[in-house]
Amino acid sequence: MRLTIQMLISHGRVARKMGLGPESRINMLRNILTGLVRHERIETTRGRADEVRFYAEKLIDYAKKGDTDEKAMKMANFWLTEKDLIPKLFKVLAPRFETQPKAYTRMARIPNRENLDKAAMAVLEYKGNPFPPLQTAKRDNELTLINQLLKGYREQRAQQARQDVL
Amino acid sequence: MACRTICQLLQRRLASSATSVRLSAAEVRGRRSAVFSREQARQRSLYPRTEKIEVTLQIPGLQGTLLVMNKGLSTPHSCARHLTEWYVTSSALALVDGKPWSLHQPLTQSCSLSLLTFKDTDPLLVNQAYWRSCAALLGQVLLDAFKEDFSVELLRLPEVLVTSGAFCCDVVLDPQLDAWNPSEESLRSLTRGAQQLIHRDLPWEPLEVAPPVALEVFSHSSDTHLRCVFIHVYGTHTHSCLTLYLSLRCGDHVLLSGGPLVARTGLCSQYEVTAIHPLGEGKWGLHRRAQGLSLPLQQQAHHTVWRKLRSRAEKLVEVPTGSTNEAISDTLTLPSAPEQTPPHTPQQ
Q: Belongs to which family (chain A) (predicted)?
């Protein structure tokens, strides 16, 4: 191909480069994914967390097919380097996300690493993990004026719905 | 003897005809405002020398701060001005020694003060005061809205819970307007009137008055009966004729209220007059209930939420009326009518 200047400029290119090459990238993601399946909440750099998210969710989709499925077992075997996690994937994680169609992971950004590199960090977790929540949704006090008005509105709607049913 | 009874009868008849002479609305307002100012000046003159009082603040972050203020002159508003601008703009009501206190009412003794906002952990008092203030504003807008030829009388500002969805104001309009039903355009023009009042950011000046002064303030109302009921509706919940009534002035209008109002009209941001429902024939004509919805500056709603709340506020709000109100007002209208002869005899 033509060795142009445009090849050095990466405008619009979405695929990330990690590690020494594509194979190194896959190996790194495999290690991170194994850690995620084992601990259900891990802390890595932002780029790596974002990359792993895609593979983590695809792995759950494969696990939902069941451990009798040939392809699912092959995938689990490839991606999980610690083989004691394969039963955990099929027996714990897949049933947990049975009702959900997608979005099994959650990523939250945290302050930069304290090392010299000051890398941007993120926390990646599977939903439904046993740890305390990362971010509590800030809810306004129930007794404020607007919340009281909305409460009255909801009660009236419920009352009307009950009257319509009768 | 016969002469004396005839004189008394004549006085009563002439007095009643004097009160039924219709003064124009502007004159009535001016006179009420004058009586209010007079009473306010008299109450201020009770403290000729400036005495100092100590006010301890109970605000989170400023616990135990001591302010030295003037007795009978300093208000919680002036205490807030000693702090930062945020306290002045955000505080809606004050708690003096645990009692709800209007922000512009002077402090009379050393006390503990806390300033309440809309975003506290327990804003129930503030919400109720805000609802009352919006109802008072609605009453004021209705008094101003109609032309001079039509009389408007405020019956009462009923205490409604915030969860009921709208604040109400009971009015009686001129008999010529019995067939009038408000259209959307008229409701919108009433809303515009309210928005103008809000934009002027008028403070609500409170004044605690004794019953005779309260009667004098409203003595120029076109109908003595209305006035009596108006006053006794607020007297009954304390069941005593010696309590002081809270009278408030906003701009030019003077009105009675069942509790403290918020500091100023500028605290409301979204305000709409939603409906005027006819309640049926009452003692003084066709009673109507005007309803509205409002939210303060710190609690603005998205337009989708506002639309839903507004559609609920258009429905009639049932106000639980205590039967004691009607009974006591009936028994007390008769003795209070002769009370009015003394102020009017000098006119003859």
A: Belongs to the bacterial ribosomal protein bL17 family.
